Amino acid sequence: MSSIVVIGGSGYAGSHIVEAAAVRGEHVTSVTRREAATQIAGVTYRTGSILDADDRAKALAGADVVVVAVSPRGAMAGQVRPAIAALAAEAEAAGVRLGVIGGAGSLEQTPGGPLLAESPEFGEEFRPEALEMAGVLTDLRANEGTLDWFFVSPAGDFGPWVAGEFRDEYRVGGDVLLTDENGVSAIGGADFGVAIIDEIDEPAHHRQRFTVAY
Q1: Which of 61, 107, 188, 195 stands 20 to 30 A from 154 (CA)?
Q2: What is the mean pLDDT of each run of 10 residues along the chain (214 residues)?
Q3: So what CATH class is 3-213?
């Protein structure tokens, strides 16, 4: 059983990761800037921010894995990349594995091709957020130390609007957007959460990005 801390545990991705961990019987802590309105039995809930050094230290203390599920939007825009860089250095020093939930925007449309965020169809309002998370991935890849990290990009369609029913299935890819036979790239929240806990329980990606889709 792993000790897992999810920073941003009340968001869409974070809450599904927390739920999947709880169902699996992991020791899981959810860290959020405000008290979580909905709480799951057996989960430890704490308030804190990735921007605060003391809160990051508390998240790392006793953890096996810290997963960041924070989006650089609104007041957080421009602040998430440096905060994750600081956390990465601290996690490396503490010997804690680090997971980062990015967006689909940093995925390649085709092998070696342009990023999804660079396509004309990508929403202009989401591009700054996608590019900031792409910068986080760049920073992680530039790490030449011993940090054990993984970065996960969900499918192109990922959010409450495609939640659907739990299907207990998913596919894993690398740096290229995964689509099904109809050209659709999607993953439900519950299946995405399970995919992250599967990676934590049986690590398959070390110092790598991967993507998850149906």
Answers
A1: 61
A2: 95 96 97 92 96 98 98 96 98 98 96 92 90 97 97 95 84 97 95 98 98 97
A3: alpha beta
